[in-house]
Design goal:
Order of helices and strands: HHHHHHHHHHHH
Number of strands: 0
Radius of gyration: 37 Å
Distance between the termini: 169 Å
Number of helices: 12
Largest sheet: none
Amino acid sequence: MATANTNSTNRKNAPTGLASLDNAHPEISHWIRRVLLVVIAVLAVILVVRQVRASHDASTAKAYAALANAVTFEDFERVAADFAGTTVAQQAQLAAAKDLFAQGNYPLAADRFAAAAASGNEILSLQGTLGQAAVCEVLGQQDASQLPKAIEFFKTAGGKAATLGQTSAQVDAMLGQVRCYRQSGDATKSQELLDAAKKLIAPLGKNKGDASEFSALNREVSGAEDALAAYALAEAAPVSAEPTPAPAEPAPAEKAAN
């Protein structure tokens, strides 16, 4: 009986789990402890990453909501300031530039468009460059020296659009050059670019999936073609000679003398 009690006591006092493994196989026990520590650390990192992502997602959602509710230039500027350093802020600055352009505030619009053009976001950079071109094109209506600048901006935008596979923006850039060359009096260059635009959109007309885009772009190209034809017609029209003025009516005194 005493032996049985002793064995029972020994079993109760015997180490269990890792403690038992420490005694029997210390190397294995040490390895298991290290693995457990690594697992715990990984789980902690995953938890932190999830919390950061959740916070970031909430912040991003808030930023886009603010941008969606912005209407005026001041609204867009506020969004850009509140979420500085984010893509939403850059989009807000571009929206502010477009609002300034619509108001006719071209100098400030040009500054905002230039900032967007310098953005690391390729799409925003493309839109910013198109905005710079649009400003110079409008100013070129009063100052012909702005037209070459507009043409260069349109060329740059066209290159960016081609790299990104943005056919619509590429066509916009081409038609912008068509207008500027026409305004400069170079109808030949305008026609070359117009033909290039037609060639660019032609494949879209063969694909049913691109039918909607083709229809919209084809209308733009047709409109540019009509404008160029009207310009050519006006240039070809002969200048009418000044009509010979009718002889002046004699004064009443002269009539009486006659």
